[in-house]
Amino acid sequence: MSTFEAVARLGGVSRAAEELGVSPSAVSQQLRLLEEQFGVLLFRREKRRLSLTDDGERLYQTTSQALRMIRDVRSAIVRKREGRRFVMRVSPSFGVRWLGPRLKRFLDTNSGWDLRIDATPDFSRFETEITDIDLRYGPGAWSGLHSEAVLNDLVLPMCSPAYRDELTRISEDPRQQLASARLIDSVKALYRWDFWLTEQGIDTIPSVFPIQLDRSSMAIQLAVDDGGVVLESSTLAIRELVNGDLVPLSPSLPVIEFPAYWIVCPARHRNRRIVANFSNWIREEATEHDRLARNLLTRLGCTFSPPAGMDIA
Fold first, then answer.
1. Is 213 within 8 Å of 185 (Cβ atoms)?
2. Given pLDDT bands bounded at 50, 70 and 90, which one contains residue 307?
3. Quick check: is 310 in a domain?
4. Do residue 229 and residue 95 come from a single domain?
5. 146-181: per-residue pLDDT in tens?
6. Tens of pLDDT along 207-243?
7. CA separation, residue 127 to residues 50, 104, 139, 148, 265 (Å)
8. 50 forms bridges with which residues in the sheet?
9. Which of 63, 82, 101 is the last residue of a domain?
């Protein structure tokens, strides 16, 4: 019927074929089949133009109305579907190690939504990209955007039990152990070895490290594999700490604590139901995670300290 409607509306086979993206012969064949089906002529052939017969006019009025209704319904369905879409951007290691294992719980209570998550270190450009929120890793205070800290980082030197035993045979002093250790540097972390060593008053270790990785997940795995000591986030390494695959290098070295994971979006996005639902859910998950991490590190003998001399909100 769409072929008939196009020919009747445009008054010619060629123009209808161009609009529909088919050949004129295909349009003519469709018209002949339709007239054979109805057993009446629908068009008068007048030189190079077609005009509707009375039967054709009645069919056109009904067909055009029906197609218009179909288009309206389709548009409504598409709008509704797009209105049920939730697009989020998240830091890669945090997305894989922390958010991913928890997503099912969110989806169980928010069914019916189309969810898209882009795991990338690049922040969203909200004015030009279709994104509801960023779950950002960073110092906070992004100009022109609503930002809410939802989870602190708890950063400490960690290694495998076997590597710690190896260092203990060198010295009981963790500072002397570090002088002999292979240090794994997470180059995109907010809090890195150079800051930490300065705060701890350790100046016997070079500021350029031979092992530099741009993904925390890789740095953590290397430490699990007895590859060295990593200064990393217990937020990202909680599974390894719980399982005993990683241990603090020494309880005498403080856990550095600061806000690091943020919900970021234009203020107007906070009015969207799915953004509010996700924000409430992640606050609850973050609170439970923080309780677990603090209890675990306290049992391991660790103490907590804010960073000194760093521009972190």
1. yes
2. confident
3. no
4. no
5. 999 999 999 999 999 999 999 999 999 998 999 889
6. 677 899 989 999 999 999 999 999 999 999 999 999 9
7. 49, 30, 22, 19, 11
8. 45
9. 82
Query: The domain spanning residue 192 has which CATH number?
Result: 3.40.190.10
Same-domain check for residues 300 and 164: yes
**Same domain assignment for residues 64 and 112:** no
Q: According to DSSP H, which parts of 39-173 are helical?
A: 54-83, 92-94, 103-109, 161-168
pLDDT value of position 78: 53
Contacts of 4 (CB under 8 A, 6+ apart): 30, 31, 34, 42, 59, 60, 63
Tell whether 281 is covered by a domain. Answer: no
Residue listed under structure tokens 């016997």: 204
Query: Of the residues 50, 82, 114, which one is the last residue of a structural domain?
Result: 82
User: What 3-state class would DSSP assign to 221?
Assistant: helix
Q: What is the pTM of this model?
A: 0.69
Distance CA 264, CA 191 (A): 21
User: Following CA atoms 122, 125, 126, 131 in sequence, which dihedral angle do they give, to the nearest 10 degrees?
Assistant: -40
DSSP code of 184? E
Do 187 and 255 lie in a common domain?
Answer: yes
Share of the chain above pLDDT 90, in %: 51
Is 285 a domain residue?
A: no
Tell me if 260 sits within 8 A of 153, measured CB to CB.
Answer: yes
Count of the separate structural domains present in the chain: 3
Q: Is residue 286 part of a domain?
A: no
Q: What is the pLDDT of residue 82?
A: 47
For 203, the domain range is 152-259+296-305
Residue for token pair 């290694």: 159
29-37, long-range: CB < 8 A, 24+ apart: 30/3, 30/4, 31/3, 31/4, 31/7, 34/3, 34/4
